[in-house]
């Protein structure tokens, strides 16, 4: 019997062999697994890569349940676990490249991903070419004979460009290139990676999977073609996570759908309100046509979340500081995906060190916000008060000109 998505999130990873008669899979902590007979040890050794208790780094029943759940949600053949999203990205790439290889990396990638390519991959003799997220068919011109990986992130970090994943994936596969996607924004819920040509879907489960801003966790779900290599290479690099963290990721999945729907509803209300503010040049919310790649969002995604950006008409750091300081419900923090609302500002010049081919074509300050689960009216009132502080500084500046 097929299950609806909401039912899947409730049942994923709850096989009886993991739950042992209770609702939630228990937290099983272990390093050493002991065997009473040579036959038992032999069985565990032979099946160590197939969710069999062998040694703590291979996982316990808690890890196996979480891996099952993520595989069921995103599709694919298996899920590797990592201590954070950055580890998931770097170790997934490391699992498939070697000296002399070439990577195509989206220019709007998460900043630590860029640092990994520029500082670690470069040192290992792996070349990275950054490409515009909206390149589409033009990606053909950047493919080299030694291109091994095409890395996508959609929507992009900070500036929120939505990529044409099916087109990019199809072209990559013509050249036997592995397609990797940072799928954190959709949480694997609103974008089905393997239905759109992705080979490995990576998430910072720190964000929406856990959902409560209290765990560092990463996942990578791979297709059957690449699962064995991802699993074994990650194991050899020592990647493992605490069973307690795996449990919290598993627990977060139970409310994932309802949380995302509320985040999306709240964020769209705030985004539409921001569109009418005189201080705002445009809003970069994938569900709005002012966001680059909005047409791909409508075609490929089934919903949104709480994260988006808006661009102010001017760049005046003192006024931006006044906007951010004094917020009651928005806090400043380098993450998102929790139940709380967050806000960060990026001046246009800051992108010069982060982008090489996709520098944004606006002059005003970009403000990225994560809309949490608070009352929307409270969040709007908070932003309105922030704009009042912002405008006071703008008027003060104009008066001195």
Automatic annotation (TrEMBL):
GO terms for biological process: L-cysteine catabolic process to pyruvate; methionine biosynthetic process; transsulfuration. Its cofactor is pyridoxal 5'-phosphate. Keywords: Amino-acid biosynthesis, Cytoplasm, Lyase, Methionine biosynthesis, Pyridoxal phosphate. It catalyses: L,L-cystathionine + H2O = L-homocysteine + pyruvate + NH4(+); an S-substituted L-cysteine + H2O = a thiol + pyruvate + NH4(+). GO terms for molecular function: cysteine-S-conjugate beta-lyase activity; pyridoxal phosphate binding. GO terms for cellular component: cytoplasm. Its EC number is 4.4.1.13. The modification N6-(pyridoxal phosphate)lysine is found at residue 207. It comes from the Bacteria. Pathway: Amino-acid biosynthesis; L-methionine biosynthesis via de novo pathway; L-homocysteine from L-cystathionine: step 1/1. It is found in: Cytoplasm. Belongs to the trans-sulfuration enzymes family. This is cysteine-S-conjugate beta-lyase.
């Amino acid at each position: 019997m097929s299950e609806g998505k909401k039912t899947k999130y409730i049942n994923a990873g709850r096989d009886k062999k993991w739950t042992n008669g209770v609702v939630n899979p228990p937290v099983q902590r272990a390093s050493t697994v002991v065997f009473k007979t040579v036959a038992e040890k032999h069985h565990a050794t032979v099946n160590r890569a197939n969710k069999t208790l062998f040694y703590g780094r291979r996982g316990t029943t808690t890890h196996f349940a979480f891996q099952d759940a993520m595989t069921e949600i995103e599709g694919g053949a298996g899920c590797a676990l990592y201590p954070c999203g950055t580890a998931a990205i770097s170790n997934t790439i490391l699992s498939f490249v070697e000296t002399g290889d070439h990577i195509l990396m989206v220019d709007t990638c998460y900043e630590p991903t860029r640092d990994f390519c520029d500082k670690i991959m470069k040192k290992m003799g792996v070349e990275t070419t950054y490409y515009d997220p909206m390149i589409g068919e033009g990606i053909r011109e950047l493919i080299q004979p030694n291109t091994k990986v095409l890395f996508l992130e959609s929507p992009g970090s900070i500036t929120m460009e939505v990529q044409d994943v099916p087109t990019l994936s199809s072209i990559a596969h013509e050249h036997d290139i592995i397609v990797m996607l940072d799928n954190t924004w959709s949480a694997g819920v609103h974008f089905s990676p393997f239905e759109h040509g992705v080979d490995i879907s990576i998430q910072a489960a720190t964000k929406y999977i856990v959902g409560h801003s209290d765990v560092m966790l990463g996942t990578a779900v791979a297709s059957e073609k690449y699962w064995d290599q991802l699993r074994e290479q990650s194991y050899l690099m020592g990647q493992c996570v605490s069973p307690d963290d795996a449990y919290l990721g598993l627990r977060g999945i139970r409310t994932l759908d309802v949380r995302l729907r509320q985040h999306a509803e709240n964020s769209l209300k705030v985004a539409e309100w921001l569109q009418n503010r005189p201080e705002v040049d445009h809003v970069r919310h994938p569900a709005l046509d002012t966001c680059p790649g909005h047409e791909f969002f409508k075609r490929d995604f089934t919903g949104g979340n709480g994260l988006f950006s808006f661009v102010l008409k001017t760049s005046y750091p003192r006024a931006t500081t006044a906007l951010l300081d004094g917020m009651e419900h928005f806090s400043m923090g380098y993450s998102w995906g929790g139940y709380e609302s967050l806000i960060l500002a990026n001046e246009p010049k800051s992108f010069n060190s982060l982008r090489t081919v996709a520098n944004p074509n606006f002059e005003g300050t970009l403000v990225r916000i994560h809309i949490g689960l608070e009352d929307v009216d409270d969040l709007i009132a908070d932003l309105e008060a922030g704009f009042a502080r912002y405008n006071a500084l703008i008027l003060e500046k104009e008066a001195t000109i």
